[in-house]
Amino acid sequence: MSNRSKTKTTVDIYGQQYAIVGTESTSHMRLVASIVDDKMREMNSHNPSLDINKLAVLTAVNVVHEYLKLKEECELLERKLSEKD
Questions:
Q1: Transmembrane residues, as ranges (predicted)?
Q2: Residue 35 falls inside a structural domain
Q3: Domain annotation covers residue 37
Q4: What digits encode the pLDDT tens for the residues 44-69?
Q5: How far apart are CA 61 and CA 1, in angstroms?
Protein backbone atom coordinates (compact mmCIF):
# COMPACT_ATOMS: atom_id res chain seq x y z
CA MET A 1 0.00 0.00 0.00
CA SER A 2 1.20 3.51 -0.77
CA ASN A 3 2.39 5.86 1.95
CA ARG A 4 1.17 8.84 -0.06
CA SER A 5 -1.69 10.78 1.43
CA LYS A 6 -4.96 10.93 -0.43
CA THR A 7 -6.21 14.11 -2.01
CA LYS A 8 -9.84 14.94 -2.75
CA THR A 9 -10.84 17.21 -5.60
CA THR A 10 -14.10 18.04 -7.36
CA VAL A 11 -14.14 17.82 -11.13
CA ASP A 12 -16.71 18.45 -13.85
CA ILE A 13 -17.27 15.70 -16.39
CA TYR A 14 -19.95 16.19 -19.02
CA GLY A 15 -21.81 18.72 -16.89
CA GLN A 16 -21.79 16.60 -13.74
CA GLN A 17 -19.75 17.25 -10.60
CA TYR A 18 -17.71 14.35 -9.20
CA ALA A 19 -15.59 14.17 -6.05
CA ILE A 20 -12.44 12.22 -6.85
CA VAL A 21 -10.10 10.87 -4.19
CA GLY A 22 -6.63 9.61 -5.03
CA THR A 23 -2.95 9.67 -4.26
CA GLU A 24 -2.12 11.57 -7.44
CA SER A 25 -1.83 15.35 -7.53
CA THR A 26 -4.94 17.47 -7.91
CA SER A 27 -3.67 18.64 -11.29
CA HIS A 28 -3.30 15.03 -12.45
CA MET A 29 -6.84 14.16 -11.36
CA ARG A 30 -8.17 17.27 -13.10
CA LEU A 31 -6.27 16.34 -16.28
CA VAL A 32 -7.78 12.83 -16.23
CA ALA A 33 -11.26 14.30 -15.74
CA SER A 34 -10.68 16.76 -18.57
CA ILE A 35 -9.65 13.97 -20.94
CA VAL A 36 -12.73 11.93 -20.00
CA ASP A 37 -14.93 15.01 -20.53
CA ASP A 38 -13.34 15.69 -23.92
CA LYS A 39 -13.76 12.06 -24.99
CA MET A 40 -17.42 12.02 -23.92
CA ARG A 41 -18.07 15.20 -25.87
CA GLU A 42 -16.31 13.71 -28.90
CA MET A 43 -18.42 10.54 -28.67
CA ASN A 44 -21.57 12.65 -28.28
CA SER A 45 -20.75 14.62 -31.43
CA HIS A 46 -20.78 11.33 -33.38
CA ASN A 47 -23.77 9.84 -31.51
CA PRO A 48 -25.98 12.72 -30.32
CA SER A 49 -29.00 10.51 -29.61
CA LEU A 50 -27.29 8.37 -26.94
CA ASP A 51 -28.37 8.79 -23.34
CA ILE A 52 -25.64 9.59 -20.81
CA ASN A 53 -25.28 5.99 -19.60
CA LYS A 54 -24.73 4.60 -23.09
CA LEU A 55 -22.45 7.53 -23.89
CA ALA A 56 -20.36 6.77 -20.79
CA VAL A 57 -20.06 3.08 -21.74
CA LEU A 58 -19.14 3.92 -25.34
CA THR A 59 -16.54 6.38 -24.04
CA ALA A 60 -15.10 3.74 -21.70
CA VAL A 61 -14.91 1.20 -24.53
CA ASN A 62 -13.07 3.68 -26.75
CA VAL A 63 -10.65 4.73 -24.01
CA VAL A 64 -9.82 1.10 -23.14
CA HIS A 65 -9.33 0.35 -26.85
CA GLU A 66 -6.88 3.25 -27.13
CA TYR A 67 -5.11 2.10 -23.95
CA LEU A 68 -4.71 -1.46 -25.24
CA LYS A 69 -3.34 -0.25 -28.59
CA LEU A 70 -0.78 1.95 -26.80
CA LYS A 71 0.12 -0.89 -24.43
CA GLU A 72 0.72 -3.22 -27.40
CA GLU A 73 2.86 -0.55 -29.06
CA CYS A 74 4.88 -0.08 -25.88
CA GLU A 75 5.42 -3.84 -25.47
CA LEU A 76 6.56 -4.10 -29.10
CA LEU A 77 9.05 -1.27 -28.62
CA GLU A 78 10.31 -2.85 -25.38
CA ARG A 79 10.87 -6.17 -27.19
CA LYS A 80 12.75 -4.41 -29.98
CA LEU A 81 14.94 -2.62 -27.44
CA SER A 82 15.71 -5.81 -25.53
CA GLU A 83 16.62 -7.59 -28.80
CA LYS A 84 19.28 -4.93 -29.45
CA ASP A 85 21.07 -5.71 -26.17
A1: none
A2: yes
A3: yes
A4: 999 999 999 999 999 999 999 999 99
A5: 29
Its pTM stands at: 0.83
For residues 68 and 34, give the distance between their C-alpha atoms in angstroms, rounded to a whole number: 20
Residue 15, domain member (yes or no): yes
> Are the CB atoms for 48 and 69 separated by under 8 Å?
no
Domain that holds residue 74: 7-84
The per-residue DSSP string of 2-70 comes to --SPPEEEEEEETTEEEEEEESS-HHHHHHHHHHHHHHHHHHHHH-TT--HHHHHHHHHHHHHHHHHHH
Evaluate whether 9 touches 26 at the Cβ level (below 8 Å): yes
d(CA 67, CA 24): 19
Range 28-35, long-range pairs (CB < 8 A, 24+ positions): none
